[in-house]
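Q: How would the structure tokens look for this protein?
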Amino acid sequence: MEVTESGVLLLPFTASSVGVARRHLASDLIEAGMCGSAVTDAALVISELLSNALQHGTPMPGLGIRVVWDTDGDGVRVSVSDGGGLTQPEVAEPTPTTTGGRGLRIVARLSRRWGTYSDDDGTTVWAEVQASPLTVIPVPAVAVEGGLTDRVPAWPASSGSELSACTQRSSLASERAAR
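A: Here is the predicted structure in token form.
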């Protein structure tokens, strides 16, 4: 299967597009060998950006909504473009009883950086998520023979003496560990 390093989706301006985009993005990042925690972070970021666009924006003329992602050696940049709205995206200050307004705060926490820009076509919100490739780690033969590796899932399928592992935690996991 061909590994996609970038993707563009033109989707209908409807809530079901969130899951479609999330599945395509996750599939491409997994095929590109990205670490599981980075895939999860990027999938959550794209979900939040799309949900915000659907709630606060309007469809792009003739297109609905556009989702784009590009990977490089150490991350993935995701962006969502809509036809614009009455307000510009900004991090809200919700109260404890407010049911919404946390999406961009989540995006800001999970990404290295994020931003917005507007032009004649509408509004685009983008975010860059740190990502590490899976790393193959040699395992001593005694661990393989002794069954110690049976409890550790390998990705992709290992040859028996190598395991694949992430070299970094997700942004939130790293932050929690530091507390």
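Residues 153-165, 167-171 have pLDDT under 50 and may be disordered.

Strands lie at 6-11, 65-72, 75-82, 113-119, 122-130, 135-138, 162-165.

Upvote if useful.
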